[in-house]
Amino acid sequence: MSDLNKNDVKACYFANKNIVITGVTSGIGLSITHLLLKQGAIVYGIARNQDKLNDIKTKYPDNFIPVEADLSDDSGWDDVANKLSDSIDTVILNAGTCEYMENGLVDVDLIKRVFDINFFANISAAKLFLNENKWSVKQYCVVSSSAHFFAMPRGEAYGASKAALSYFYESLQLSHPDIAFSIVHPGFVETPLTDKNDFDMPFKITSDKAADIIVKGLMKKKKQINFPWLFMFILKTLGKLPSSLRYKLGKGMVEK
Fold first, then answer.
1. pLDDT tens across 41-80, in order?
2. Which ranges does the record mark as transmembrane (predicted)?
3. What is the pTM for the complete model shown?
4. Is 160 inside a domain boundary?
5. Domain assignment of residue 105, yes or no
């Protein structure tokens, strides 16, 4: 796993802090977990795979607390709450899923599955951590996606779930000015989810690189952490085109 620049004066920013991270057993979540554990953070790592959680615990026995939970069900957050310490410095909501709709055929069950993980599980987290803030959370990060900046074929469920997530937290943070919120919009990142994609993924980066960018962004308390910059620039530029041109571009993708 990659390390932060040793010359970074904030390299110990997370040392001895209690941090909750979801989706820690693969992809970006695993890379962030390793990075913060190396900084000396105390990580409550949440995932469904107990064996993979145990693997991390074996490597970091002193400061990794595994929490097996299914966050697609509200009771999963009850399991999490019962294992947390009296205070949590940072919450990083990273867990997510992706399923594609084919040929414009609306699959309501598929859409519900995607929203349960990408949206509603993260809303349940907000209810747990923010309504009363009994854990005195100081920093709150949610991993969304750049996918919602420009509509693409097959991405109806995924893009909509991430758009809803970003809007929800951009709005919610206005009511919590004492908490440092960061919303992450990654481009394509090498993860088990993107390994399943059957299309070109421009500007794709490793999960370790993504973790470096996210952690450094959190240390700077950036409101938005968007990367890679060129991909983001292209997507946002396309998103500002007249709707007729956006439609033609999207239609061209479908016809390919």
1. 999 999 999 999 999 999 999 999 999 999 988 888 988 9
2. none
3. 0.89
4. yes
5. yes
